[in-house]
């Protein structure tokens, strides 16, 4: 038979049977870290379908392209002073940040609930608090990337344009602190809303509503209480507690002693700090409680 | 040492008792956990994984108490849930690698293991495509693969044949059998269909309303009974044989085309042989009757 004469095919797969694994098994901390990294990648669509990359990359581009152009112009025309500080830039583009949060928080939180894959995580060594914490950290880091990247470009551009180094570095660091405060707060709020529902659409709408409505409300209330925009009226100052963006703007001015429209006094600053911590802690607790319910169900 | 041992395990919800003083042991090989919907199968699996706490009693899995050592248990156990649990926008490879890491495997080991187990469950070219386009059979295979990816010391399979067509069902059961024998991993598999567990399990645990109905080796459950099944050429012959056996003092009753004769001793065989010969009937077969699990369950 010709079969017997034929040489063995090059790509034969031999069934070597089932192999046991006796290598290292990592602990909870390493697992949490791995989940954070993969969630962060997912927040930018990496490792997921091409379609899911569109929104995050588009929004990142919207954040980055204007500063890139600005840096180009300030260098080409040799400006004496930077046209915009890092901290201002964040609040200038807060709608983009809100959109990013609304589009990606459900990807990190609602997705596992909607497709039931949360069960597979809960059946593994990770505790549900680890899971919740990893997801919240990943979302905060993703927001940090979204805000940090344009800041780095602004900073690099400022150095290229030979603006005052100390001043620029100070502004850059202030910007990073503000971005960090905002990232953590937004991640906590967005995470709680997204974890509450397995329906992605609901979560998107709810996050947008909460961010836009609260900010509009704060703007309107401050405008009524402080029609001249002097920022002296105490009630109008406290009104800024009503939205995550204004809350962080005031808190950052307090922590950094400047940078915003006005600097709160110590009492006001401490109130803002307390509210910030309470909201973050409350949201994290809420996310955790939500997963406790999922685990029981 | 048993792989799973529960002692008076009880789970009460405000209005319903899901498990009621369940004491059962599960050893190596494939064990079937059988019961109607709501019999407490899924509750038992969740308690064994340490996901919900029992109201009373205790459960030891692989030497760890599930209440105090849930984490250790989950590191050693693979779990295949009953319901859908696969995100549609990632590939099987990507997903199984990720879940391997979630079980504590380093990244490279997770990759190797994922490739291995996906090959074992028979998912070949499709494993690089997003799972949204998979058939039910392929999805069940991925669900099984993720339960095996960290080389567990025990796998809990919750209704793995759910939604599969007969061919897919047979393949899945063959795979389960291989895991229990060739892979050497103890398996606890739940089902509400007794017939399908008959072929793959070494041991069967039957739950009813949260209570243990039976826990026996399959041989014992479906073991020989004292009944001889006799089939003769036509139905008229069946009736004549039945009547003649009655007259000869044997206890016989018709069952479909068969006559079932209670075996009282060696002489029963002789009586049946002689009676058939006397009547001049065409004997089709004569065999010892085995219980099927359905009958066990209906008792």
TrEMBL record, chain B:
GO terms for molecular function: ATP binding; ATP hydrolysis activity. The keyword Nucleotide-binding applies. InterPro entries: AAA+_ATPase, ABC_transporter-like_ATP-bd, P-loop_NTPase. Keywords: ATP-binding, Nucleotide-binding, Transport. Residues 4-234 form the ABC transporter domain. Pfam families: ABC_tran. It comes from the Bacteria. Belongs to the ABC transporter superfamily. This is ABC-2 type transport system ATP-binding protein. It comes from Kribbella voronezhensis.
């Amino acid at each position: 038979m010709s079969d017997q004469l034929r040489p063995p095919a090059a790509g034969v797969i031999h069934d070597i049977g089932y192999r046991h694994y006796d290598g290292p098994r990592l602990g909870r901390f390493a697992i949490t870290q791995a989940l954070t990294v993969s969630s962060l990648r997912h927040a930018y669509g990496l490792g997921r379908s091409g379609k899911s990359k569109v929104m995050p990359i588009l929004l990142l581009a919207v954040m980055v392209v204007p500063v890139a152009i600005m840096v180009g112009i300030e260098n080409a025309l040799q400006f004496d002073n930077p046209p915009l500080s890092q901290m201002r830039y964040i609040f200038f583009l807060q709608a983009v940040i809100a959109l990013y949060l609304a589009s990606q928080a459900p990807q990190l939180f609602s997705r596992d609930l909607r497709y039931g894959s949360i069960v597979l995580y809960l059946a593994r060594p990770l505790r549900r608090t680890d899971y919740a914490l990893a997801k919240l950290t990943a979302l905060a880091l993703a927001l940090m990337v979204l805000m940090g990247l344009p800041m780095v470009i602004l900073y690099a551009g400022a150095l290229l344009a030979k603006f005052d180094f100390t001043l620029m570095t100070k502004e850059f660091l202030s910007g990073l602190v503000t971005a960090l405060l905002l990232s953590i707060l937004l991640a906590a709020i967005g995470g709680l809303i997204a974890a509450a529902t397995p329906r992605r659409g609901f979560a998107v709408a709810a996050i947008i509503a909460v961010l836009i409505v609260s900010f509009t409300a704060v703007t309107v209330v401050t405008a009524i209480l402080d029609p001249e925009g002097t920022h002296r009226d105490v009630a109008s100052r406290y009104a800024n507690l009503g939205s995550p963006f204004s809350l962080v703007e005031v808190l950052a001015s307090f922590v950094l002693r400047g940078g915003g429209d006005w600097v709160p006094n110590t009492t006001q600053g401490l109130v803002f700090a307390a509210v910030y911590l309470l909201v973050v802690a409350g949201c994290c607790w809420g996310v955790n409680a939500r997963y406790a319910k999922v685990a029981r169900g | 040492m048993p792989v799973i041992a529960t002692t008076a395990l009880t789970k009460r919800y405000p209005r319903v008792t899901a498990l009621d003083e369940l004491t059962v042991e599960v050893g190596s090989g494939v064990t079937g956990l059988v019961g109607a919907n709501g019999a407490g199968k899924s509750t038992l699996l969740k308690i064994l994984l340490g996901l919900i706490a029992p109201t009373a009693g205790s459960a030891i899995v692989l030497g760890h108490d599930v209440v105090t050592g849930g984490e250790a248990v989950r590191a050693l156990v693979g779990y295949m849930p009953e319901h859908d649990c696969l995100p549609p926008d990632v590939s099987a490879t990507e997903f199984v690698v990720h879940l391997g890491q979630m079980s504590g495997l380093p990244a490279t080991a997770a990759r190797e293991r994922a490739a291995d187990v996906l090959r074992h469950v028979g998912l070949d070219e499709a494993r690089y495509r997003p799972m949204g386009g998979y058939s039910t059979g392929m999805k069940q295979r991925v669900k099984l693969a993720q339960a095996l990816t960290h080389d567990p010391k025990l796998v809990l399979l919750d209704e793995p044949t759910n939604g599969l067509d007969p061919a897919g069902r047979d393949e899945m059961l063959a795979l389960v059998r291989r895991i229990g024998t060739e892979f050497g991993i103890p398996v606890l598999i739940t089902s509400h269909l007794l017939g399908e567990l008959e072929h793959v399990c070494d041991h069967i645990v039957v739950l009813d309303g949260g209570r243990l109905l039976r826990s026996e080796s399959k041989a014992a459950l479906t073991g020989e009974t004292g009944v001889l099944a006799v089939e003769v050429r036509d139905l008229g012959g069946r009736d004549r044989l039945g009547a003649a056996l009655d007259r000869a003092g044997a206890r016989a009753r018709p069952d479909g085309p068969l006559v079932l004769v209670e075996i009282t001793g060696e002489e029963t065989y002789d009586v049946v042989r002689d009676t058939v010969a006397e009547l001049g009937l065409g004997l089709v077969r004569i065999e010892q009757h085995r219980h099927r699990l359905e009958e066990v369950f209906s008792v």
